[in-house]
Design brief:
156 residues; alpha/beta; seven-stranded mixed beta sheet; 7 strands; 27% helix
Length: 156
C-alpha cells in the first residue's frame, strides 16, 4: 500500500492538509489519526470539515466522543477517543450508525476503540519535527490507495 509524506511548518499548513484530504475523499472513508497530544489531529480535522463546506466552529469532541456534521451529501463524524475508559462504551453511543455509506469518519486515538471500530481506509500519522510537524498518510484499503494516489498527483 502507498504512503504519502508532507512537512508542515505551521497550523495553517495542517488545516490546508485537512482541506486537501477532504477534497481527495470522494467515497465513504474511515481515517485514523495518530500522534502525540498537540501533534495537530484536531487541527487537521478542522481543515477537513471546513474543506467539506462547514463554516462554523469545529470543536474537539473530547468529552462527547463524537461531533457529527451534516455537510451537503456527507455526514462527517469527528471522533476523539482520548478519554474513552472502555471501548465497550462505543456500543452505548450507537457506534455502528456513524459508519454508513454517506459518512466520512475521522478518529483520533483509534487504538482506544479497538475491537469496536471498522478498519481504516487511511492512517494519518502526525509527528513533531522540532518546531514543525510532519504528516504521513498511509493507504490501508483500496479506497485509501485512491486517496494517496490523488494526494501524490495534486499536492505541491
Amino acid at each position: 500500500m502507498k504512503t504519502w509524506h508532507i512537512e508542515l511548518t505551521d497550523a495553517e499548513q495542517t488545516v490546508a492538509l485537512g482541506a486537501l484530504l477532504a477534497k481527495a475523499c470522494q467515497q465513504a472513508s474511515v481515517i485514523y489519526l495518530e500522534g502525540d497530544l498537540g501533534a495537530g489531529k484536531t487541527t487537521l480535522t478542522r481543515g477537513f470539515i471546513q474543506g467539506k463546506g462547514h463554516t462554523g466552529k469545529v470543536k474537539s469532541p473530547t468529552y462527547t466522543l463524537v461531533e457529527p456534521y451534516e455537510l451537503g451529501e456527507w455526514r462527517v463524524n469527528h471522533f476523539d477517543l482520548y478519554r474513552l475508559a472502555d471501548p465497550e462504551e462505543l456500543e452505548f453511543i450507537g457506534i455502528r450508525d456513524y459508519f454508513a455509506d454517506d459518512c466520512l469518519c475521522l478518529v483520533e486515538w483509534p487504538e482506544k476503540g479497538q475491537g469496536f471500530l471498522p478498519a481504516a481506509d487511511l492512517l494519518v500519522e502526525l509527528a513533531y519535527r522540532g518546531e514543525q510537524r510532519s504528516a504521513q498518510v498511509k493507504a490501508l484499503s483500496e479506497q485509501g490507495q485512491k486517496v494517496v494516489e490523488w494526494l501524490s498527483q495534486h499536492a505541491g
